[in-house]
Amino acid sequence: MNVNELLLGKNTYKIVEIKAHYVDSEYGIINGGEMISYRFASPWLALNSENYMKYKHSSIKERRELLRKIFIGNILSMSKHLKYNVPTTLEVDLELYPLKVSFKDISMIGFKGIFETNFLVPDYMGIGKAVSHGFGIVKKLLRCNVEGSNI
């Protein structure tokens, strides 16, 4: 395929170079009960129209549990596409906050924040809905020692 120009709105841009970068990343359950911390670098679109109504009419505790179950489902779905069979129970702890996002000119709720899981997720992998549009991108949090504690 030969691409010489890119049309964005009313502007045309000449393409002078195309590069692709491929990284063979590891993923899967972490043995030994270790949890890894991640952050959402872009909003996670977790809710469809059906579970949005359930979310909207739930208590804070019920919302957290609903999001936890949806997140686990997203990891299982991602694993299925990667042809990886999750051999044990997924553990997840979410600390998220809602924010308004627009996708295809539709206003919806997305979530940002941090999470811990016993599943190794490659950096910049998308989780949830509309990952091909840049939503749900995750990035591992770096661990550092502060006065002897692991954070």
TrEMBL record:
<dbReference type="Pfam" id="PF17262">
    <property type="entry name" value="Cas6b_C"/>
</dbReference>
<protein>
    <recommendedName>
        <fullName>Cas6b C-terminal domain-containing protein</fullName>
    </recommendedName>
</protein>
<dbReference type="InterPro" id="IPR020209">
    <property type="entry name" value="Cas6b_C"/>
</dbReference>
<feature type="domain" description="Cas6b C-terminal">
    <location>
        <begin position="34"/>
        <end position="140"/>
    </location>
</feature>
